[in-house]
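User: Could you check the structure of this?
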Amino acid sequence: MTKFGRQNYIFFPHFTACYYATFGLEFSQMNSIYNISLVLHSYNRWFVLGSLMTLIVYLWFHKKEATSLKWTSVPKRATLITLDFQLALGLALYYWSPIPTYFWTHLPETIKEREIRFFGLEHITVMLAAVIVIHLGSYKSSKKSTPIEQHKTLFIWSVIGLILILSSIPWSFSPLISRPLFR
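Assistant: Sure, the predicted structure tokens are below.
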């Protein structure tokens, strides 16, 4: 394991304590907030994936008989709410975590380390793009004139967003970067 490997949270205790002290919080307080947010972020991803897949399956099976978006609005809203909550948790974790701060302060060295680069740059970039794509799809579908066009537009943008999300989740079985499925 490299010096930037899985144990960087343990490996940088002095850096982490100094980082949190700048915000006027005790390390133990900030550490517990960080850990709670990390667990919520880990579990909420399953709600995001479930609601997004439910929306996609619903749109797929109702693509021919789309009469209105009345029933589509329930899975669409559930998807957007869980997605926005996940985004808020992710941005809070990005702000509180010492990994992105270390990544940006030591960019020439850390850009070569896969795990630090993934959490410092790749994960947040692709996930932000996925959230934007799904929100754009929701907006564009509401501007279409017929329900069939609305379903088709929402389906296409949601599938693109799902592909982006699946590509940037640190799966436990991934050879590139892995994290436990549940924390």
